[in-house]
Structure formats: C-alpha cells, structure tokens
Design a protein that fits this description.
The protein is an all-alpha fold. 78% of the residues lie in helices and 0% in strands. InterPro entries: KCMF1/Dystrophin, Spectrin/alpha-actinin, Spectrin_repeat.
C-alpha cells in the first residue's frame, strides 16, 4: 500500500513541488550574488584596459572569461532544473503564462530604451545617458538566460509532448477534433515563442544601435569640449595681457612708438588663435547636419568664445588707432607741444623731457 502511495500522481506532484521550491531557493541565492558578480566583472574590465598589451592582461582576460562562463553555466543549470521540474506540473499553462510575461517585459524594456533618446547636446548629459544604458544592458544580460531557457523549454515541450496530451490542455468554444486541438496548442506556443525570439533580437539590436550613437556622440562632444577649453585658455591669456594695458593718456610721449610696436607684436602673437576659433566653429557646425542638437549651455559657450575673440580684435584696432593719433599729434615730429604756461592739472605733469598725453 505504501508503494502504491509513492507511485500515485498526487505524491509525485508533491515531490515535484518540493524539489521546485529547493531549486527556487538556490536560484534566489544566485540572484543575491548577481551584483557582486557584475561588480567583479566591471572592475576586472577596468583593470584589463589599464593593462592592455601586457602578459598580465592576457591572464586576467582568461580568468574573467572563465568566471563569466562558470557564472553563466550556473545560472543556466539552475534555470534548466527549475524549468524541467515546473514543466511536470500543468506545463502548457505555465509555458503560456511565462511567454506572456516575457513579451510584456520585452515591450516594457523597448519603451524604456525609446525614452532614453534623443542624444543629449553636451558631454555631461551624454555621459549620464551612457551610464543609464550600461545599466540597461546589464538588465538584458541578466535576463538572457531566462529567455533562452524559456524558449528551449517550449521547444522540448512541443517536440516531446504527444498529441493526446495536448488536446486536453486547450479548449475551443466549438467542438474540435483532438488533432485540431493539439495543433492549436502547438501553434499558439510556437507563435508566442517566435514572437519572444523576434522581440528579443530586435531589443538587442536597438540597444546596440543606441550604444553606437552614444559612443559617437561622446567622441564628437569630447572633441568639441576639448577644443573649446583650449580656445578659452588662449583667450584668457590674451585677455590678461590686454588687461595690463595702461590708458593711452597715462603713457609718456617718448614711449608711444615703443607701445605701438608692442601692440603690433601682440597682434601677431595672438593671430593663430583665429585657427582655434575656426576649428571650434567647424566642429559645432557639424552637429547641425546630424541628429544631435547642441544644448543651450554649449551654444552659449560658443557665442561667448566668438564674442571674446571679436572684442580682442576691436580692442587691438582701437589701441593702435589711439597710439597713432597720440604719436602724430604729440610725438617728436609734431608741431603741437604743450606749453609750460598751461595751468590747472596739466601743470603738474609737464617736464622738459616727459610730457603725458591726455585723451
């Protein structure tokens, strides 16, 4: 009697549920170590990039590959064991529900991916988008064994399940033959499985395309940022020199020619900055023909850099004009000298050799 009880369907189902719970506990423990695994993997990749080309890099790469392989195999085995046990209890309904859940998850992730667009218009924004998408890709990597296991389970189920068993699992509103019912079950599961596979492939493809756009944007925005930083540095250096100029009215008459020559030398020294200005503007112009819209911050920076360069040119031209006029009107070859009889504030500044010029 005890032997009959052990062989009864109810007893078998009870044992299946018990084993299923044990596998679930194991899988829960595996999931609890997922973050640790990903941290190890990411840190290993960072160290690997710093050791690129060395023997240590090759050794570290093999260890990382081995760790990833063993982790993937562990997850696959736990998922396969769980799938096999659960398939023994109301298999078709479970598979049907599992595929529905996967399709809903895939749709959710596809919506999330679309919401990450468009590409930002400055470096900090795109760097944040890159971090967001890296986390998104980790989700896909974690979900991949689940999806592959579900598809494999459906394939095995459809290949091994006899038609006599299938026809009892699916009820049509009209009377169908056992063969028709079995075919409907097969078609439904196969259609769902094909849809999951298609949506999974599309999601990964869209993710790869989005990552490519992010990488390209990071490279181009980084180049623009570096060019603007270099131009800003050169402009600040030139502005410091310009800021040290004394008003023409405070200069001594016999030094006007020297100051005029210094301004001309200064103009020649900063002339190459024009190439930096053109380079920055060319880089910015390239974004107008792409799907990347520069942010207001970048646009303001560009406008500021161009304005500062123009103001430098205006200041140089004005300085040269004033020095020319002062040298013409009060220089040694001019006929216009200040008289020693001039009264008021001029009187204190006049000397035989050093007479200041006031605008």
């Amino acid at each position: 009697m005890q032997q009959d009880q052990c062989c009864s369907p109810r007893f078998k189902l009870k044992m299946i549920h018990r084993k299923t719970y044990r596998v679930k506990d194991l899988q829960t423990e595996i999931e609890a170590h997922t973050d640790i695994f990903h941290n190890l993997d990411e840190n290993g990749q960072k160290i690997l990039r710093s050791l690129e080309g060395s023997d240590d890099a090759a050794l570290l790469q093999r260890r990382l590959d081995n760790m990833n392989f063993r982790w993937s195999e562990l997850r696959k085995k736990s998922l396969n064991i769980r799938s096999h046990l659960e398939a023994s209890s109301d298999q078709w309904k479970r598979l049907h529900l599992s595929l529905q859940e996967l399709l809903a998850w895939l749709q959710l992730k596809d919506d999330e991916l679309k919401q990450q667009a468009p590409i930002g218009g400055d470096l900090p924004t795109v760097q944040k988008q890159n971090d967001t998408h890296r986390a998104f890709k980790r989700e896909l990597k974690t979900k991949e064994p689940v999806i592959m296991s579900a598809l494999e389970t459906v394939r095995v189920f459809l290949a091994e399940q006899p038609l006599e068993g299938l026809e009892k699992l699916y009820q049509e509103p009209r009377e169908l033959s056992p063969e028709e019912r079995a075919q409907n079950v097969t078609k439904l599961l196969r259609r769902q499985a094909d849809e999951v596979k298609t949506e999974w492939d599309k999601l990964n493809l869209h993710s790869a395309d989005w990552q490519k756009k992010i990488d390209e944007a990071l490279e181009r925005l980084q180049e623009l940022q570096e060019a603007m930083d270099e131009l800003d540095l050169k402009l600040r250096q030139a502005e410091v020199t310009k800021g040290s100029w004394q008003p023409v009215g405070d200069l001594l008459i016999d030094s006007l020619q020297d100051y005029l020559e210094k301004v001309k030398v200064y103009r020649a020294e900063i002339a190459p900055i024009k190439e930096n200005v053109n380079h920055v503007n060319d880089l910015a112009h390239q974004f107008t023909s792409s799907d990347i819209q520069l942010s207001p911050y970048n646009l303001n920076c560009l406008e500021d850099l161009n304005t500062r360069w123009k103001l430098l040119q205006v200041a140089i031209d004005e300085r040269i004009r004033q020095l020319h006029e002062a040298h013409r009107d009060f220089g040694p070859t001019s006929q216009h000298f200040l008289s020693t009889s001039v009264q008021g504030p001029w009187e204190r500044a006049i000397s035989p050799n050093k007479v200041p010029y006031y605008i």
